[in-house]
Amino acid sequence: MAEGSNSNGYHIEDDSEMLVYKKSALSVTTFKIVYNHDDLGGSKKTLHFNPFMAHQVFGENESIFGYRSLSITIYYLHSSSRCYVDVQKSGKLKSNTLKVDDIMQSLDSWLPTGYTTELKQFEEAVKNEKHDVMFGEVLMDFKDKLECKLFPYKNVHSNYKISLCDVNDAEFQEYHKRFETFIVWFIDGASYIDLSDERWMLFYVYEEFMHPEKKEIYRTPIGYCSVYKFLAYPDKVRARISQFFIMPSHHRRGIGSKLYNVVVDKLRSLPEVIDITVEEPTNVFQKIRDFSDCQKVMQELKDNDIDLVATDIKKIFSHMKKFKIGKKQCQRLYDILRCYHASRMSIMEYSKYVRNIRKRISADIEKEYRGSKRVCNLNWTAIPVERLADRESLVESEFKDYMDSIEPSVKSMQQNLAGSR
């Protein structure tokens, strides 16, 4: 008989009876965005999605113990992000030895301040919702080519506006505290930021449309990006992108790419910013970043009639640094561009450059051995000490990890720039 434990650490036997009371938090939790009172029912048009992760809320196993037929629906008002939580269950385990998880206690610190579990109270908030609120100075707007999901077949197309918000605005601070509660479910290791620190910058994305029946403007926050400005002595700034979030309901519409471009273009325009980095980028974000940066570098080289292959790498890097790209990202972009270029020539050319990457990684590791150093950014911390003597194994491991990280970006270049010369 298999054994396990519930999220509170109590030892249980995973027999068929106990499994009935063990639920996946990712499966039973649903977010719904409320525009009008009808969205509180079972309307199919309501924007809804499930979380990507729940370990910070319900423990490493992302499970909830003690209930039958469990459903947790978390409603957010579309503009203000005021929140209502509805927990439904058909039965609860009765036991003198096993502890049932307290769902609301687990959720409490991860929900917007002032959330309610009372439907009537939330219905009143729905009635009082202001639909057209937006914060910040608009830096860019663009129209969605796809129809608005809320109004299929009615030829409603949303406009998206990206704004830079004033972190000193008390009303905005309260608003952001509510909206940022999404990120714990979608960004690994997410934490809330302190907007009393003026070194934060916040960029928001709003969806805007004219309601076809009510004839009112509706604006909804559907994502944001936070940036922290570190001091670079004596009077410069190193900008680090910290959080980058787009609602799952709005993925695959090019919104993330637009937001990234607006953020980095704004940062590059600030004379005090010397470079731009990213804090623990996800694979999806890194692909967006790579493709955007590669496009800018390719255009820069084209405008200056510079041959990527024939030109010394230091000169290529000097052009990259015009875009305030950090050294590590410069090398990464160079490898992606060279791999992309070689793949368009022949398999032999591609293989040849990939071997050059391996040689460089090997040389870097050899240099560290000679200097008796251990470099954390080569991911040595994941390799047992006894294997450090096996240089070939180390080189192969680092080479594979690096190629696995850049190949999706090379493929993205191939797919998005197919046919261009």
UniProtKB/TrEMBL annotation:
<dbReference type="InterPro" id="IPR037113">
    <property type="entry name" value="Hat1_N_sf"/>
</dbReference>
<dbReference type="Pfam" id="PF00583">
    <property type="entry name" value="Acetyltransf_1"/>
</dbReference>
<protein>
    <recommendedName>
        <fullName>histone acetyltransferase</fullName>
        <ecNumber>2.3.1.48</ecNumber>
    </recommendedName>
</protein>
<comment type="similarity">
    <text>Belongs to the HAT1 family.</text>
</comment>
<dbReference type="InterPro" id="IPR017380">
    <property type="entry name" value="Hist_AcTrfase_B-typ_cat-su"/>
</dbReference>
<dbReference type="Pfam" id="PF10394">
    <property type="entry name" value="Hat1_N"/>
</dbReference>
<feature type="domain" description="Histone acetyl transferase HAT1 N-terminal">
    <location>
        <begin position="23"/>
        <end position="188"/>
    </location>
</feature>
<feature type="domain" description="N-acetyltransferase">
    <location>
        <begin position="219"/>
        <end position="281"/>
    </location>
</feature>
<dbReference type="InterPro" id="IPR016181">
    <property type="entry name" value="Acyl_CoA_acyltransferase"/>
</dbReference>
<keyword id="KW-0012">Acyltransferase</keyword>
<keyword id="KW-0808">Transferase</keyword>
<dbReference type="InterPro" id="IPR000182">
    <property type="entry name" value="GNAT_dom"/>
</dbReference>
<dbReference type="InterPro" id="IPR019467">
    <property type="entry name" value="Hat1_N"/>
</dbReference>
